Amino acid sequence: MQALLQQLETLVGAAHVLTQGDLSAWTQDWRQRTHGRALAVVRPANTQEVAQVVKTCADYLGAHPNCGLSIVPQGGNTGLVVGSTPDETGLQIVLSLQRMNTVRQLDAANLTLTAEAGCILQNVQDAARQAGFWFPLSLAAEGSCTVGGNLGTNAGGTQVLRFGNARDLCLGLEVVTPQGEVWQGLSGLRKDNTGYDLKHLYIGAEGTLGIITAATLKLYPLPKAQLTAWAAVPSVQAAVELLGLAHQHLSASLTGFELMGQFALQLVSRHFSALRVPLYQHTPFCVLLEAADAESEAHARTQLEGLLEAALHTACVTDAVVAESLSQAQTLWQIREHIPLAQAAEGLNIKHDISVPISHMAAFVAGTDAALVQALPGVRLVNFGHLGDGNLHYNVQAPEGVDPAVFLKDHEPRVNSLVFDAVQAYGGSISAEHGICSLKMEHLAHYKSPVALAAMRAIKQALDPQNLMNPGRVLRR
Ligand SMILES: Cc1cc2nc3c(=O)[nH]c(=O)nc-3n(C[C@H](O)[C@H](O)[C@H](O)COP(=O)(O)OP(=O)(O)OC[C@H]3O[C@@H](n4cnc5c(N)ncnc54)[C@H](O)[C@@H]3O)c2cc1C
């Protein structure tokens, strides 16, 4: 494939076709569960270069159908389901969008911002804020993940209950197809009923249908005040009741509602002792909730205090604090955001990013906790997540003193079946926001409707008949 590599060097410059040295930043996944090998890491500078790289690869594959060449699109490489790194064949090109990091336009009247796919999410949030607007997609990886990856995975995060997923925040896309053509769909229109809405095919496709090179995103007015509260709750059912009360009291001002189990908070306390975790020692769960008010801080505080008073009255909350300053609010969010990091520090664990209807959440947690503890005595459950969206990170950690790697090797399939069977029984999804890619592909084949799988295969075959884009991810052909 030397001839192909030389062609790619001519297109993007030899300095941006990496084949030597330590490529682990591109070839190893964030959780360090896999270590792939790339034919090359290619870093185009603009959409035209992306299109030329893809066309060159498509032509090469056409001429050498059994060469095994394919392309893995990559943004910040923070994905949690092994989708942005190459496999071990050494035949895949990692196409990194890192150099495409320009905010192309901010249209204040249209309330939109158009950003290239490699823009870091935090930089997009900052660009919006500097112009007096709010781009509300927010997740703990926002300092490294990119717009392309956010859309490729249809990321969720902490503001979904008010603003929706990345999909709901996107009005248009620019995409390079697997044939190396450019689809210019950066319309910024809120209404466009001219047939199939193609952007929704590429959003959440995890790089299997094409490469997103830019996106037009929705902006919102900055709120006058944002307040954060932390509450101790006696059970998951009580947290669900609190969510109902929060919807009533705060209405559209409610922007975040996170549930955190006691063990998850214990891990934060253990591994990040500088973060002082409030109220968790004598309660099985805590809730972090956020209100964004369009009127004033005083109005926000009255609303939030009214909610907590009502919740204390009905006993769905046993204790609560409201952050007095921005820095206190940031610390509370940091505690929530450090849960995945604390878990990683504790050792490998079996992760599930599931959703069930909010009305079934308490029964799901109680039933699945009990089944796991019975099947694997001593197992430790790290439950936390976006309860406001019916989404829980329901993670299973080895019993104290057991080697996490051995635990995973011996028990991962059984734990997964137990959890996913329960998810299915409650009408839920085995992947609420992280996606499928390599890690969940076999589970998708088992749990998704055969009719839906057949339709997905037909779409993949129609758009990418050469199977050039991220093959063996999401769907097996
Ligand atoms: C600490 C931490 C917290 C997280 N919290 C959340 C959370 O709350 N909610 C959530 O949803 N996720 C979360 N994630 C997962 C991850 O951050 C998101 O999936 C993020 O959207 C991935 O963006 P990325 O740029 O890193 O994409 P990558 O990891 O590079 O890629 C992810 C997938 O998208 C594809 N892709 C990347 N760029 C493109 C492109 N330009 N065109 C087409 N396909 C592309 C890749 O091929 C891959 O399949 C978290 C991750 C970490 C490490």
Question: What does the model show?
Answer:
This protein is α+β, with helices and mostly antiparallel strands and 477 residues long. The chain contains 16 helices and 19 strands. The protein has helices at 2-12, 24-27, 47-63, 121-130, 147-152, 160-163, 199-202, 236-250, 262-271, 297-314, 326-337, 339-346, 361-375, 404-425, 441-447, 450-463, and strands spanning 17-18, 38-42, 70-74, 92-96, 103-107, 112-116, 133-134, 170-176, 182-185, 211-218, 220-221, 225-233, 254-261, 285-293, 319-322, 349-350, 353-355, 380-385, 391-397. Strands 12, 13, 14, 15, 16, 17, 18 and 19 form an 8-stranded antiparallel beta sheet that branches. A 5-stranded antiparallel beta sheet has the order 5-6-10-8-9. Helix 1 runs antiparallel to helix 3 (47-63) and helix 9 (262-271) crosses helix 12 (339-346). The protein is globular. It starts with a helix and ends in a 14-residue tail after the last helix. The mean pLDDT is 96. Bound molecules: flavin-adenine dinucleotide. Residues 30, 72-80, 83-84, 97, 117, 139-141, 145-146, 148-150, 152-153, 155-157, 206-207, 211-212, 340, 433-434, 437, 470 line the site of flavin-adenine dinucleotide.
How large, in whole angstroms, is the Cα Rg?
Answer: 23 Å
Provide a count of the helices: 16
Provide the residue-averaged pLDDT: 96
Estimated structural class: alpha+beta
| Unique ligands | flavin-adenine dinucleotide
- In helices, the fraction of residues equals 25-40%
Number of strands: 19
Name the overall outline. Answer: globular
End-to-end span in angstroms? 25 Å
Largest sheet at a glance? 8 strands, antiparallel
> How big a fraction of the residues is strand?
15-25%
Low-confidence stretches: none
